[in-house]
Amino acid sequence: MPELTWATKKLPQMQPGRLVSDSLVYPNGRGYPDSPILNRVILGDNLRVMAALLPEYEGKINLIYADPPFFTNRHYPARVGRGEDSRKPAEWQLAEGYPDHWTNLEAYLDMLYPRLALMHRLLASDGTLYLHLDWHANAYARLLLDEIFGAERLLNEIIWTYHGPSPIRSAFNRKHDTILVYTKGSSYTFNVDAVRQPYDPTTVKTFASSVKAGFGKIPDLERGKVPEDWWYFPVVARLHGERTGYPTQKPEALLERILLASSNPGDLIADFFCGSGTAAVVAARLGRRYIVNDDAWRAVHTTYSRLVEASTAPFRLEIEVESGAIPSFQGSSGAQCSGGEISLPENLLPELDYWEVDPNWDGQVFRSASQAVRPRRKGTLPKKLALPAIEPEKLAIRAVRIDGRRGNIW
Question: Among 101, 145, 184, 243, which one is least packed by beta carbons within 10 Å?
Answer without folding.
Answer: 101
